[in-house]
Design goal:
By secondary structure, the protein is mostly helical. It folds into two domains: 231 residues, no CATH class; 271 residues, no CATH class. Helix content is 62%, strand content 3%. The protein is built from 23 helices and five strands. The longest helix has 30 residues. The chain starts with 9 loop residues before the first helix and ends with a helix.
Length: 562
Amino acid sequence: MPETPSSALPRQVADAYVDALIDLDPITGTYLGVPESAGRLPDFSPAGQDALADLARATLERLDEAERLPGAGTDAERRCGRLLRERLTAELAVHDAEEGLRTVSNLRSPAHAVRNVFTVMPTGSKSDWAAVAERLRAVPEALEGYRESLALGLERKLPAGPRATAAFIGQLEEWSGAGRAPGWFEEFVAPGPAELRAELDSAARAATAAVAGLHDWMRDVYAPAVESASDTVGRERYVRWARFFNGTDLDIDEAYAYGWAEYHRLLAEMTAEADKILPGAGPWEALAHLDEHGTHIEGVDEVRTWLQSLMDEAVHALDGTHFELAERVRRVESRIAPAGSAAAPYYTGPSEDFSRPGQTWLPTMGETRFPVYDLVSTWYHEGVPGHHLQIAQWAHVADQLSRYQATIGSVSANCEGWALYAERLMDELGFLPDAERRLGYLDAQMMRACRVIVDIGMHLELEIPADSPFHPGERWTPELAQEFFGRHSGRPADFVESELTRYLSMPAQAIGYKLGERAWLLGRERARAAHGDAFDAKAWHMAALSQGPLGLDDLVDELSKL
């Protein structure tokens, strides 16, 4: 870790941590727009994981010293120090439990990180493509380090779940082309300059061969070894992951009950809205009707353009009325996700200098016809006023925060909670004027309530309440969770299956949407009560977005004071 002065305050300690982390994790450097990171990949081996943990421990020691200094008690220093301590402590708890030795998922793994980083690398010049080639040559070593970690996990009886393993093997097969077509890396370099053609093709083939090798090892060695392992994690591991993703010591049983309360509330609203679309029909019958007869966008290029216009319209309508947006924050791009992605849309933030804007990504899953009801609320979530406004605003006010707060110090439940709050805000402001769009919004809200129910329920094998219309009194299993989720979602079966695999392999992440939204709503309610008629929603939104990330333990308290 770089030396920091003995008089360093918490924000300086946090910034020194970011500098050191980028050296160990050049993927993070690329997302931040650091050119020196472009040709490298992290060490995903056990030794590489230990190096990250050593950095976290050293940083916490320096933070102890920093928080004793005069000046450490200001709001800016206090918030940063609290966030840094909470995040690093949660990360170390995960590391010390050796969770990094069984990181297999259909959404979040070192292999996904390796592939995804190429999608945000600049490719506008010959030197950019030369960096791509250099990083491609680093893929085999990076994936071998990942394989080494998984092998040690097997040796220590720390298996991943068989369902996530099977899904991941399928993704690796698609990325490699499975010997039937060019691999994903080879397709990626196809637009590269002619003068680097041989170098790019050679490096891409080596990367594809590494993916194919990992695929074969996962299929032939790893999958048989974890075949009898549990897909669920149990209470002890779940509590650990709940802290990591939510920034709170969660009352799991209360959260489970809250999920059911939201389920019943939303079901009543959805039933009323569905009746406007198809009188006498239930919510999911009405949604199936919309799949066939509702408003659609035809074509992949067309849906990308339409989503861009939706975000542009939101920026125009909200700026100056409910938000005050800097010009560079107003810019956000709609993109199509690369083939082989998980089914859920996602967002990537801007580089620190905004040379790469924030980007929303739509996985098409092979489809060319897209129902509007399923897109509008989702893009308010992923784009504007959701993830983009929060994450881009952090980057914009980075000079008032630490670099850590503005970039990598985010808490999943804070971010996802804001994005779900943003969906609700757009409903409150009248941006969902017809039953079709509003039922889609309520379906998205119901999905998040169901996530709380099934994620907690299946991992802890809880009992289904007696007032549930679905298998009352039985204990949750992944099979029941998938059936329940499928019955209460307007989304296709492959999406439902992908989602359940995600919940099984990322325990406690999916609950943060609803629990985070609850925190944002409670913070707003308390701030409004404190200010009375003088409450200014626009000023509150901008102050809330500019204070940087916080875990749910601290978020309500800070929001209430704004």
